[in-house]
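mind reviewing this fold:
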Amino acid sequence: MKTPLCFLLLTLTALTARAAELPNILWITSEDNGTELGCYGDSYAITPHIDSIAEKGFRYTNASSTAPVCAPARTTIISGIYPPATGGQHMRSHVKMAPDFKMYPQFLAELGYYCTNKSKEDYNLEKPEEFWQKGGHWRNRAKGQPFFAIFNHTISHESKIRDRIPEEAKIHDPAKAPIPPYHPDTPEVRKDWAQYYDRLTMMDELVGQNLKELEEAGVADDTIIFYYGDHGSGMPRHKRWTYQSGLRVPMIVHFPDKWKHLAPKGYKAGSSTDRLIGFVDLAPTLLSIVGVEAPEWMQGHAFAGEFETPEPKYAYGFRDRMDERIDCVRQTRSKRYSYLKNYLPHKPWGQYIQYMFATPTTRVWNDLYQQGKLNPVQAQFWQTKPAEELYDLENDPHETVNLAESADHAEILAEMRQAHAEWSATIKDVGLLSEYEFHKRANDAGKSIYEMGHDAKLFDHPAIFAAANLATSLKKKDLPEIANLLDHEDSGVRYWGAIGLLTQEADGVNAGHDKLVSALSDPSLIVQVTAAEALGRYGSEEDLADALPILVKHAQPEADAYLAIAAWNAIDYLDDRASSVVDQLAATSPKPVKVPNRAGNYSTALKTKALADLGVKVETPKKKKKG
């Protein structure tokens, strides 16, 4: 049956009337830059166009990217859900959204918005449908149609720091570059910092072009503007780390007079606010601005619009697998304090990441550490982590003085620890399972990872959270109880039993030796790998002989990709203790593991590094030329 023409005309008329009541919205984003901008008080920065937005807009001084690296950060934005709840927290992963969940552009499209994104997506969540217009620019919309447009500038990306600018085009003097206390002050570091600021100035020029386009088209007075960076700078200990250097971002909003009624409470041109906001808040805020109340499954807080919420007491961040290196850190911050729980404290802050080591600062910093030429603050990055960190952001903005053991801060530590526990329980943090394990559980149940995490029969969060926190106490007195975790019926708990013994090195292996040996044949393959790493690194020669076949087996090309990443990480930490199987390991190289969408050649990178340390050069397969 055909729809009557009169009904179509009425519908079109209603949509047109509704569209007239909706603002245009422009998001200008830039990659890999924190608050190193003039409007944030940085006198070394040259950023006049971004500063001009701040002069007429509203500047957030406590804005967080939620994740300190691009894909998880953008996954947070597009969904309004913390990625540790969906399984999308690992770098360049690919997971399904729960049924009936929508990404925010879908809501806008339903209201008649012309939605464009130029051009980066990088979501770890599978898009349910195509929602970006192919035109690529808001100018291509229909007459009278409201637009939502993103312009993403990549010129400030990490890779551009090491892509040297010609001498005649340089803007900032390296001699005057501000060097944070944790970086060594060397010519290479100064050049990297100066070039980073040069790239910010170049990025600022592009922002100026975005603003000029609005003015020339006569739509500036009808357009709400957001400017933000996607996480901290591309310098080491910034991008990828859950310190403020990695999480704190610039966030500036401008509401023209026509749309001032939608602006945040307290909005005043040229002013700022210390309200805690994070990327998880962007989707509900955007919906609030267009008159839609965020669905209950969104986990952020709207900070503008019709449904603006009270300010939350805490903001949250996370770090999980970064490229080929496995980690698990959870951050909770108030306005003054930042608390970090390190769930894999046996891993150093500065794990070797192939892509990160292409930056000169990273290599020089590591070389100086190996030579013993760093002070304690600079050397810390290359050492293993404590179980917990607590920083006073007011008195220690660079987060170099850990107050977790301070008796004067015991009450604050307990408060922040409790806030972390409540958040983890609320979102159902599936990151307390290994990446291999949560994919397996969800796939076996035929569910999305989010659904699996919210099914108490499939994911016993209280038991696994308790095991994870016990296992990572780093206290010798806890070793008997940690060893007993390996007897638990839940493989997630057993995994933490093996992790807990591994974190305490030889003491841990001695305390749970027999249980670790038994775990080499555990039904869970990730428990096998973790037990093998513990025995391989800190056990006897006999233990090593038992452990190596397990790791070699699970590092093979036919192994599960996430399991292989875990196995190769373990092998790399064995160093010379893996020399007896070097021929077997070399036989698997350079053939990469068959990987899921977006996972990249992370296993190949791990193989290359591990074998290079054992004296074997891996030839990277040449890409075939396109005919």
